[in-house]
Write a structure and sequence with these properties.
The chain is built from eight helices and seven strands, in the order αββββαββααβαααα. The protein has about 300 residues and is of the alpha+beta class. The chain is globular, with a radius of gyration of 21 Å. Pfam families: F420H2_quin_red (PF04075), Hemerythrin (PF01814).
């Protein structure tokens, strides 16, 4: 869609709680905001979507959040991938706006992790999309380009509201750490399975990895920008421990890069070697969590 046409749709979507008129009368769209791969600026695109919900109420790949949203990089059947798709390959952290009568203004806004499906998983998801929206099959016939299918997974950590009391902040810190530990456990469990025994395993592991890495990066940016400077002012005697924690964030960022590289070679890696390397990375992260809880929680529980 031309940029000015997109702008009209976006404005109408936001002013009419997702209800569109004209050629889009009756359509249900979402707005996907990505970060420009080259510019670093936000880029919003209206997209059609399909909900993928399993028979047990879970997401199509066993997701605990209940569903995932599927979007297709059709670009109207052109021979070039759309900008939003190239953006999510560079930065999978996205914002989703979707019609929801329960939300203020009729639109729910939440953070998500965007995961591009590959191989047979992509083909299976594309077939699901076409079964609901047959027009995408026509788009695929119009180009030799394989239309990418992207799953959007809501990020639960991004929905937290920062508490105002220090004891509540301590609870928040533990809640975030527990969620991150759960993601580590899910990754470890997934590495114990074989792709032949678990269809879509690679995509699920990549989703867990991307969600984990995105959530931890946001968590650490918040600590570096707000929590640690505050504690350093209130507790100058803890400057050494806080400096160590801030320095460890750089180390954790390296660990996360290694973790993503680890899962990128999931299909060809030796399972035993893969598990051993993952366990090493997990130990480094757990040591960081444990030291932070030891040093920071007492300052929040008993600030005097």
């Amino acid at each position: 869609m031309p940029l000015d046409f997109n702008t009209q749709i976006i404005d109408e979507f936001r002013t009419r709680a997702g209800r569109l008129g004209g050629p889009f009368e009756g359509w249900v769209l979402l707005l996907l905001t990505t970060t420009g791969a080259r510019t670093g600026k936000p880029h919003t695109t209206p997209l059609g979507f399909v909900r993928d919900v399993g028979p047990d109420g879970s997401g199509g790949s066993g997701e605990p959040d209940g569903e995932r949203l599927l979007v297709v990089g059709s670009a109207g059947g052109s021979d070039r991938h759309p900008d939003w798709y190239r953006n999510i390959l560079a930065n999978p952290e996205v914002t989703v706006e979707i019609p929801d009568a329960r939300a203020d203004g009729g639109i729910a806004t939440w953070q998500a992790t965007a995961v591009a499906a590959t191989g047979t998983e992509r083909d299976e998801l594309f077939a699901k999309v076409v079964s609901v929206a047959p027009g995408y099959a026509d788009y695929q016939k119009a180009t030799d380009r394989i239309l990418p299918v992207v799953a959007l997974y809501r990020n639960p950590v991004a929905d937290y509201t920062p508490p105002t009391r220090l004891d509540a902040l301590a609870d928040e810190l533990l809640a975030v750490h527990d969620w991150l530990r759960g993601e580590l456990a899910a990754l470890r469990e997934g590495l114990g399975a074989r792709p032949a025994d678990a269809p879509g395993l690679t995509v699920r592991l990549r989703r867990h990895c991307l969600a984990f890495c995105s959530a931890l990066a946001v968590h650490h940016r918040g600590e570096d920008a707000g929590l640690f400077p505050y504690l350093a002012r209130e507790h100058p005697g803890k400057a050494g421990a806080l400096d160590r924690l801030a320095a460890e964030h750089a180390t954790v960022a390296r660990v996360l890069d290694e973790l993503q590289a680890l899962l990128a070679r999931l299909d060809e890696a030796d399972p035993a070697a893969l598990r051993e390397e993952f366990d090493r990375l997990a130990r480094e992260l757990e040591e960081h969590f444990a030291y932070e809880e030891e040093q920071v929680l007492p300052l929040l529980r008993d600030p005097a």
